[in-house]
Automatic annotation (TrEMBL):
GO terms for cellular component: cytosol. The keyword Isomerase applies. Gene3D superfamilies: 3.30.70.260, 3.40.50.1360. It comes from Paenibacillus elgii. This is Ribose-5-phosphate isomerase A. Pathway: Carbohydrate degradation; pentose phosphate pathway; D-ribose 5-phosphate from D-ribulose 5-phosphate (non-oxidative stage): step 1/1. Its EC number is 5.3.1.6. SUPFAM superfamilies: D-ribose-5-phosphate isomerase (RpiA), lid domain, NagB/RpiA/CoA transferase-like. The active site is at E103 (proton acceptor). It is an enzyme of class 5 (isomerase). Catalyzes the reversible conversion of ribose-5-phosphate to ribulose 5-phosphate. InterPro entries: NagB/RpiA_transferase-like, Ribose5P_isomerase_typA_subgr, Ribose5P_isomerase_type_A.
Amino acid sequence: MDAKKAAGEKAAEYISDGMRIGLGTGSTVYWTIVRLGELVKEGLRIEAVPTSVQTEKLAREAGIPLLPLARLQAPLDLTVDGADEVSPKDELIKGGGGALLREKLIASFSDRFIVVVDHSKCVSELGRFPLPVEVVPFGWEMTSKQLRQMGCEPVLRMRDGAPFVTDNGNYVIDCRFGSIPNPGELTVELNKLPGVVENGLFVNMADLIVVGHPNGTVRTKSGT
Ligand code: MLT
């Protein structure tokens, strides 16, 4: 079985009747959404808040009832999402799919945050994957220069010959740091820049990491 499918489907086992959940974005949580769609058809009663327009569409197609964020009065029971890198301390780089801001918001609104990845995402140190940073379009060129001064190689994300625009109307600058020995400090420093809306470092957020392997086995480890 595909490693992403194995991890994604495993996460669905943590979701029970009556839960209100957050649904992440990406190629691994895709399988969680597909599995939840099957379970909903079999009678599982859940409500979900999607982290992107893409996931909203997928959840609708799967028949998963959606919960408007404005109606949320208490934290979500849990959120399931993917990651682009996971460190041994369960710090994450997210945002390869461009939904990092809503993903971080929804994770912060949740009692539990479960991360689903295939084994290739587990690294000894974060930073080989370019860190996505969501920035306001106004003055992005100068924000990019400020990011460079923080020790990375910044590249504006493009799609079809134009800047990639997030669901929030912002740009993404992918920052190649090479290594990020102290994600906790870096996330604070990045978010001090006025042009930065949010960055893809998720520190002290993951409660459980579900790791899929190519032979279809799944290992879990507790996070923070
Ligand atoms: C992301 O964090 O951008 C994605 O969710 C990672 C993925 O594709 O699983």
